[in-house]
Amino acid sequence: METITDNNNSKIPERVRNIKGWGIDANPENDPTYPMKHLTGADHDRLNYERAEQQPVNIEVLHSNERPGITRVFGTSSPPSGLSGALRRYAFKFSEGSSAHWLTLIMADRVNAVEGIVDDLRHGHVPNIFKERGWTAEWKYNRKGVIKKAAIGLAITSVAIAVLAYRSKKNKKTFPAS
């Protein structure tokens, strides 16, 4: 592997040299922990370690479009699938600095939770949503907070229903049926 030495005498591999900020800590002379850390001499050997063997890729692995490839090791327990998987694939088209990336991943997590409940029901298991969401413990240890959240939720729902009913009534007056 060809390496290039930059102005700080740090050696950065050619394949990642174009990534801004990559290898910024490669120069032991430019260690921001210097005043606090007692160097032993072997501290900077971490830059010259032997990389682990690449884990075999036998499932779909989503990774940042800012990296040249996938990490050496990755999780395989839940590959992307269904609507949540489609949302995750869409999210990884965006940069990690983009809110579209993160908001889409958050939405995919919410969709995946619903998909999990549907999957449980499909397999004949009725999930105990109160316990799984921690509401039983919340009721036991924070009853006042649960009542407050329920009251706020009820108020917001009531206002939303009232506004929708008012708009519906107003639309019926404006456009009478013929």
Would you spell out the secondary-structure blueprint of this structure?
Elements: E1 3-5, E2 11-13, H1 82-91, H2 99-122, H3 129-132, H4 135-141, H5 143-174
Antiparallel strand pairs: 1-2
Helix pairs in contact: 1-2, 4-5
How would you characterize the overall build of this protein?
- 43% of the residues lie in helices and 3% in strands.
- It is mainly α.
- The chain is elongated and about 75 Å long.
- The termini are far apart.
Characterize this entry briefly.
The protein has 178 residues and is mainly α.
Average pLDDT taken over every residue: 82
Number of strands: 2
Head-to-tail CA distance between termini: 80 Å
The biggest beta sheet reads: 2 strands, antiparallel
Strand composition percent: under 5%
Radius of gyration, rounded? 27 Å
Shape: elongated
- Low-pLDDT regions: none
Give the H and E element order.
EEHHHHH
- Biggest sheet: strand arrangement: 1-2
- Given helix and strand content, the structural type is mainly alpha
Number of helical stretches of at least 4 residues: 5
Helix content: 40-55%
